[in-house]
Amino acid sequence: xxRSLSFLRHTAASLVMLAIVTVVLGFGYPLLVTGISQxxxxxxxxxxxxxxxxxxxxxxxxxQSFTDAKGNPLPQYFQPRPSEAxxxxxxxxxxxxNLGPSNPLLIGFVAGVNTVGLDGKPSASNxxxxxxxxxxxxxxxxxxxxxxxxxxxxxxxxxxxxxxxDPSTVPERALAYLAFNDLPAGTGVPVDAVTASGSGLDPxxxxxxxxxxxxxxxxxxxxxxxxxxxxxxxxTTGPQLGFLSEPAVNVLKLxxxxxxxx
Amino acid sequence: xxxxGWEQLxxxxxxTAVLAPLLGRYLAATFGTVPDKKAPGDRIFLPVERLVYRxxxxxxxxxxxxxAYAVAVLVFGAASSVLLYAILRLQGVLPANPTHAPGMSxxxxxxxxxxxxxxxxxxxxEGETAASYLGDxxxxxxxxxxxxxxxxxxxxxxxxxxxxxxxxxxNFWADLTRSLVRVFVPLSVIGALVLxxxxxxxxxxxxxxxxxxxxxxxxxxxxxxxxxEVIKLLGTNGGxxxxxxxxxxxxxxxxxxxxxxLLLVIVLPFAIxxxxxxxxxxxxxxxxxxxxxxxxxxxHTMVAMQSELHGNHLMPASVSQVASPVSPGGNxxxxxxxxxxxxxxxxxxxxxxxxxxxxxxxxxxxxxxxxTAAFVAILLGExxxxxxxxxxxxxxxxxxLSVFIAGLMVGRTPEFLGKKIRATQMKLVVAxxxxxxxxxLVFGGVSLxxxxxxxxxxxxxxxxxxxxxxxxxxxxxxxxxxxxxxxxNTPWYDITLGLAMLIxxxxxxxxxxxxxxxxxxxxxxxxxxxxxDTGGPTFGAFLVGVIVIVGGLIYFPMLILGPIGERIVG
Lengths: 262, 570
What we know:
The complex is a heterodimer of chains A (262) and B (570).
Chain A: H1 2-40, H2 42-45, E1 49-52, E2 55-59, H3 104-107, H4 170-180, E3 189-190, E4 204-205, H5 207-221, H6 225-234, E5 236-237, E6 248-250, H7 251-261
Antiparallel strand pairs in A: 1-2, 4-6, 5-6
Chain B: H1 3-31, H2 42-56, H3 66-90, H4 106-117, H5 127-130, H6 133-163, H7 172-198, E1 208-211, E2 217-220, H8 225-234, H9 255-279, H10 283-310, E3 319-320, H11 340-350, H12 368-379, H13 390-410, E4 415-416, E5 419-420, H14 423-449, H15 451-454, H16 462-476, H17 491-519, H18 537-569
Antiparallel strand pairs in B: 1-2, 4-5
Helix pairs in contact in B: 1-9, 2-7, 3-4, 3-6, 3-17, 4-17, 6-7, 6-8, 6-17, 7-8, 9-10, 9-11, 10-11, 10-12, 10-18, 11-12, 12-18, 13-14, 13-17, 13-18, 14-16, 14-17, 16-17, 16-18
């Protein structure tokens, strides 16, 4: 009897407590914080928005795509990191790749690690290797990467008859990066340029990545490389307080500054 | 580890070493006294608390037995879960929904409600689109506050039971109210404003559409993010408004916020141990517990920082992973440029020894060694430094186990803080130690052999095994972080992970209260030369050994099959 009485008392107290915390913490607290924030930190609280010619262009804290309507990167703009947010830098769908470190979709088919034969059984070498990309992951005719081949599987081919490779593996991205920036083979590609970020909305690239792109951007804009490199250094931030962050280049701000040169 | 990594880690340690004692002293002054004795800030806080007590119709001076305390915790948890479930189901038709989030399905609402009431904050839903602003604010944020306050309240009761000389261990409603009014709410307001000043958003705008430079369009999210971010961290909860959590630039915009957010997580659990030392009048005992927690924290954090900086050895030779002044280097898949590998591993793996599991990078893409470090931090029982309250009562239970084992080895009657440890307590301690491994290994094992379990695995091979077992460990330990490659919003995972969270939260709470209750009022023996000293480095080292052996032996076969195997095969 005493037990059930205290049970009822606790239930009543729980309900009253929930009513109080829902009103005070659920509404009062966020409204208070919002009010003070909007008053004193208006720009930050609203997303560090960037306007150009009076129109909302983006946020200084969010990366965005610099591609044409077909999705090809525009050479006159610095290119951000690969993005897994939606179809790329989708602000409504932040996401990482979540690919494990040995997943062929990330590192390709690495001989002796994750390679499979045409029959789908583990194999010591990669049967899909091409001259350019020994880690090639083949595509199906409809363009999906094939990571577990089976007998009878059809594969997409290139014009020269070799296997067409999944373009979003790191080895393929590295090849594309070297070609797009006209860099000699053997140049070490900065790791941030070929990996997707944690949010898919990373606003920054590394300084090395920006410097590797500078000559291409300069050429596309008929500027001198020195001029573009100077701008890269101007828009390099960090390390915050000397050690709290990595040095980084904000891609949107840098590209807007380039557009402003004209 | 490189210079940046060392500097960041030492900075975190230094700030914690300064702030935790200050905060701990404040907590002790607030909670360590009888209710009518003067506590700091009474002039502001006391009138508020009196209003709450009057509304609740409770007498804050009416101290409870452990059974009554446990009933109050469970009843409040049940009522909170039902309310949160209702809000999540109905959010589609409730106001304050500019992003047009629909009501959650019954199973997803069940999983999410349990997840936030238990402080786990496992998120099977998509942050940006599947929770309305009202669901976030009035539902999830409120649960984040109360879950944290319940954890602290239980720790207070356990301390009173283990160390005190009364059979009664405090009033749950007073502990809950005072935790909220004097700790979590004021610290959250200050912390939220610091975050906003750095760029964390705080608005009700919904999505804005921007016309991008290249001629496309981009949706820019909004929301009351800072007010949720701060209690997510301070309350060792971990649940974010956005899907990727602390990796999102609107939640964690700079290197400063990255470190600040880590400090929001770890300072309070350390301060609670300081409070414990002052409450029992044995600061040396608290110091040795802090040393044990810090040693384990440094262990898993530094291993992960080193491994992520070293990079993924399977990357092609054409990619440079060398850190330099112009490139962060390391394993950058799933990591943000501004944090780099060191800052990412520091924040992500640093919070894994708490129940927050607040990541700023994608764990699934960590190197096998870095991912194992995070995994081990969870498996060791969330005591480095643990959740708010949970860290303290968790390590106290392990300390009892250590005292008992040490007593057997040297042939003395085991004693902790002057009280004899007997069969009653040891049975409860063993149940406490076993409950979570049983949940993890049973659910994890079943999931690996049945279709509904294996269908959700993204990554092939051994990495997939890690994804599944990590999910149950994370749920049962109320951590909430994920190897996110697992598609967890399926009926099988919604239900079983929900049960894992429920068991992993409330069974240990009841057992800890029972242990405290069984010791409450027991005679305190004077210290003699034969008493085992539990406040010295010998006991500290022994405690580390017990923690590692208990965690290691139970989980070792699984770790061999999962991440360790992946590293060897790769």
